[in-house]
Specification:
Structural class: alpha+beta
Largest sheet: 5 strands, antiparallel
Strand content: 25-35%
CATH class: Alpha Beta
Radius of gyration: 14 Å
Shape: globular
Low-confidence stretches: none
CATH topology: Peptide Deformylase
Helix content: 10-25%
Oligomer: single chain
CATH architecture: Alpha-Beta Complex
Number of helices: 3
Strand order of the largest sheet: 1-2-3-6-7
Number of domains: 1
Bound molecules: nickel (II) ion
Number of strands: 8
CATH superfamily: Peptide deformylase
Length: about 160
């Protein structure tokens, strides 16, 4: 277990398409544990592998609903409705922006055992899933933000960072 350094906006890796994971290795398993540690340490609710410099399709999410979601090679299958609200990103420190996302999403992914599953998320979880999946395709929320980004203090940031 280790805390990894988080890449920030301007770093090229955040603009790259990530590669699908083919098999679970000890190395990848360790990466997933490190991603959770790094996310909790930074006070975030989600983290994608490229944010720690790894071009692999892996996302971890914990929106405090009692689950630690690991999404490997995720594909969003369905989107429904819309929600508009504040969003932040550990790779865009000190900022927040208003982003419209689907209210509900259904995603198919592999878990830590490389078993396929489907997850339906609503509200904040749906927002986190969309935000993190975007990272795997080289996109940051700032591309979708309505109006200019706002400066937020460290304290205000916690709880709405993903
Ligand atoms: Ni992010």
């Amino acid at each position: 277990m280790a805390i990894r350094s988080i890449r920030t906006i301007g770093d090229e890796i955040l603009t790259k398409e990530c590669k699908p994971v083919k098999e679970m290795t000890e190395h990848t398993s360790e990466l997933i544990e490190d991603m959770f540690d790094t996310m909790y340490e930074a006070g975030g609710v989600g983290l994608a592998a490229p944010q720690v410099g790894i071009r692999k399709q892996i996302v971890v999410i914990d929106v405090e609903d009692g689950n630690q979601y690991v999404l490997i090679n995720p594909v969003i299958l369905e989107m429904e409705g819309a929600q508009t609200g504040p969003e932040g990103c550990l790779s865009v420190p000190g900022k927040s922006g208003t982003v419209t996302r689907p209210e509900k999403v259904k995603v198919r992914a592999l878990d830590r055992e490389m078993k396929e599953f489907e997850l339906e998320g609503e509200g904040f979880l749906a927002r986190a899933i969309c935000h993190e999946c975007d990272h795997l395709h080289g996109h940051l929320y700032v591309e979708l933000a309505e109006g200019p980004l706002e400066d937020v203090t460290e304290q205000e940031e916690s709880g709405q960072e993903d």
